[in-house]
Specification:
Blueprint lengths: L5 H10 L2 H14 L1 H13 L3 H17 L5 H22 L2 H17 L8 H17 L5 H21 L10
Helix pairs in contact: 2-3, 4-5, 4-6, 6-7, 6-8
């Protein structure tokens, strides 16, 4: 059985009464935690995305406070953190907020003192976030591009002070 096109689903949903639509939403939220979290965002935080971004940043802060000392386990914890961060970014769907959260992650990474390691997978996590920021900046309005470019340049300068052999080629 193939899934129908989104356009067909949209037409059918517009024809349904409110009560049935609410029942379908609740039924859908029972099956996956991610559906429930998305419904929570749409109902309670859609108009207050700034508050939601702050909550995500607090969540990142808590995860970075609990980082283990081992490079291997630290990498595993940070991968999980990035997976959760990406899920919340997907819920918000706004490039500016995606940049804010990604920049916050990079700052936490640099302040955690794990940037001096030679463990390539761990450093790769930082480089991928820097690459994400680098690619997102041109997609913004010009006035926002300037502000975020300055923040990105400050991040790069800090990475260069902590990583002796850092090159911009690492994030292109």
């Amino acid at each position: 059985m193939e899934a129908p096109k989104l356009n067909l689903i949209r037409k059918e949903l517009q024809e349904l009464p409110k009560e049935v639509l609410a029942e379908y939403c609740l039924r859908l939220s029972k099956y996956k935690t991610e559906n429930k979290e998305l419904l929570n965002f749409l109902l309670f935080f859609n108009q207050r995305a700034d508050d939601y971004v702050e909550d995500v940043k607090k969540l990142l802060d808590e995860d970075f406070k609990k980082l283990p000392y081992s490079d291997y386990t630290c990498t595993k914890v940070l991968r999980k953190t990035i997976r959760i961060m990406n899920k919340h970014i997907k819920f918000i769907g706004v490039k500016v907020f995606e940049l804010d959260i990604s920049i916050h992650f990079c700052r936490l990474f640099l302040n955690a003192g794990i940037c001096h390691t030679s463990h390539k997978p761990l450093i790769g996590l930082l480089y991928r976030q820097l690459k994400r920021i680098y690619k997102l900046i041109p997609k913004l309005d010009e006035d926002l591009q300037f502000d975020y470019q300055q923040e990105f340049d400050a991040l790069i300068a800090e990475v260069k002070t902590q990583r002796k052999f850092f090159s911009m080629q690492d994030i292109y």
